[in-house]
Amino acid sequence: MSAGWVAGSVRARLLLEHRAGVQAALRVAQAGSLAEALTGLAGTVYAPLPAGASLEEAQRAIAVCTAPRIRVLAAWLPPGGAVGLRSLAAWFELVNIEDRLAYLAGAELRAPFELGVLASVWDSVASAQSGEAIRTLLASSSWG
Hints:
By secondary structure, this protein is mostly helical. It is built from seven helices and no strands.
């Protein structure tokens, strides 16, 4: 096993130590309301949520905590090692693309998730000026 894979596995274990854990996941899953679910996240890395957050705000805040962790893990892997993590990052890239399309349709500009080496097409889509341009970029990318 190469030094890059050892470093990546050590980093992955460190990230696991900071996960919410089974008990927090059960509290959130068994919550009877959004407020109760958000309270269930207290004491986890996902806790800094706005008071009275909506479901969409809570989901976005949790995603904002998760994306950098996946990116950091990818950075610790040897060259080519991040390929498998792209499937985890795909959701974030899709959200970025949806947000870009919404912005082009008149919605407020949202800060994109920074994906670094995990992005497959986002760097090109980020500057697209129309839905058709995004469609063309996606068609010529690994997204097909």
